[in-house]
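User: Quick sanity check before I run a bigger batch. Here is a single chain. Can you write out its predicted 3D structure?
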Amino acid sequence: MKTIGLIGGMSWESTITYYQLLNEAAKEKLGGLHSAKILLYSVDFFEVEALMSRGDWDAAAELLGDVAARLERAGADFILICTNTLHKVAPQVQASIHVPLVHIAEAAAEELCEHGITRVALLGTKYTMTQDFYRNKLTERGIDILIPEGDDIELVNRVIFDELCLGVVKNESKKEYLRVIDSLRQRGAQGILLGCTELGLIVSQSDVALPLFDTTLIHAKKAAGLAFPV
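Assistant: Done. Predicted structure follows.
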């Protein structure tokens, strides 16, 4: 079994899901009393979000690179950043370590291709939805991307930061998300990619007709495949 390094806390609400999924996978694959070997460094999201808000991505890269190096020194065989948005600094983080960084968007692209999805609706923070650092990982695999239009970009982003990252799930926000998803379906989306690790808190497959791809589940599944012997 390999040791998984997790950079969590962004937010801790979704980091819980990573921990649970990885241990469930260890139990399923290995049986008995097996659990996953995990090293978790949970950052203070207040500090990280402040850097994001003022566009200081260099400082964010330095912070996460330092965390990744600590996890490597502690014995991690590979590392996951437990959030989509901070993969904007994934190249700098990878450059600070010698073990692999498992990229969430690359894992998502693999999953979409396996399911024959060539046009996907992407939901996430405004950074993830609109900037190339994430979108390019999908388009490189021949996947067309649809995102919400107009004010709906800010709506999706606001709910993530003001509600879901605080563990708050409001029925009215869920209704708005489902409205946005339906508009994306009408524009030709073949599936919905939850490109934020908190979005599984508010939307599930039972809520929508289109196939739903949760990057938290996909990322954890990829890590489990790397960590546990078959």
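The longest strand covers residues 4-8.

User: Great, the batch can go ahead then.
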